[in-house]
Design brief:
The protein has helices at about 5-10, 65-80, 95-100, 165-170, 180-190, 195-205, 225-235, and strands at about 35-40, 45-50, 60-65, 80-85, 110-115, 130-135, 150-160, 175, 210-215, 215-225. The protein has about 240 residues and is of the alpha/beta class. The chain has one domain (about 55-230): P-loop containing nucleotide triphosphate hydrolases (Rossmann fold, 3-Layer(aba) Sandwich).
Length: about 240
């Protein structure tokens, strides 16, 4: 890992890399170091993690399809996070409740809560029980659940990049972007002052490719899905 990327991880929430082979991801539950989750592999096949759950209020913006958002939520749950999803399409998120299983009394696990797009009281996060709030409210989300305490991460799911989402995107500690059409890539270039070669790269990403963007950070990576995740999510894809 270059010093440039190491410095960027301190500010953008990208965790150090593992030394295991990515093929092992098919044999283990996706996990990472404290608060880190395996997101995919780098261009050389090295596994990459993001520090999605950490001792500081954290914002992550996902620009892309529902597949990516649900995979991030599943992997946060796999490392012990409480998951609260605020969404206008609750049926699309019920697979998280299925993955969380049931309590001994047969009731759904409280680790996953699917809510409407309105303010609600959130579980109190802690180091032993971090909280991931997924805000699935369209391309111009209201800030209903801003992260205000350590160990709370709010993920904003943007189906596409909208000019009015600039404030949300610029406030993010980490942005994960899937392939963008040319017009949205040009908007991304204006928002983050991207040079032409990086702007073009956003338009040519494959379905299983994502760019991690942060301060002093531009890191392409490839999504890796385990067999258990494939049963829930289906094959890796760009859209919903």
């Amino acid at each position: 890992m270059t010093s440039r990327l190491r410095d960027a991880t301190q500010h953008t929430g990208v965790a150090p890399e593992f030394t295991v082979d990515p093929a092992l991801l098919d044999a283990i539950s996706p996990s990472g170091d404290r608060g880190g989750i395996v997101l995919g592999s780098g261009l050389q096949g090295e596994p990459l993690t993001i520090s999605a759950l950490r001792s500081a209020p954290t914002r992550i913006v996902l620009v892309g399809g529902l597949y990516l958002a649900r995979q991030v939520a599943l992997r946060a749950m796999a490392v012990g996070a409480w998951i609260v999803v605020a969404t206008g399409r609750p049926a699309a998120w019920q697979l998280l409740s299925k993955a969380a299983g049931t309590q001994p009394n047969g009731r759904p696990s409280p680790l996953v809560q699917i809510r409407r797009l309105s303010p609600v009281e959130l579980p109190r996060p802690s180091e032993d029980a971090p909280l991931l709030v997924v805000h699935d409210g369209g391309p111009t989300p209201q800030d209903l659940f801003p992260p205000r305490s350590p160990w709370q991460t709010t993920v904003y799911v943007l189906p596409y990049l909208h000019p009015q989402a600039g404030a949300t995107a610029n406030a993010a500690d980490l942005v994960l972007m899937q392939r963008l059409p040319a017009g949205q890539a040009e908007l991304a270039a204006r928002l983050w002052r991207l040079p032409p070669q990086l702007t073009r790269q956003l338009t040519t990403l494959k379905d299983d490719q994502v760019v991690a963007l942060g301060r002093n950070l531009w890191r392409p990576l490839r999504l890796v899905t385990t067999p258990k995740e494939q049963q829930l999510l289906g094959p890796v894809r760009r859209g919903d």
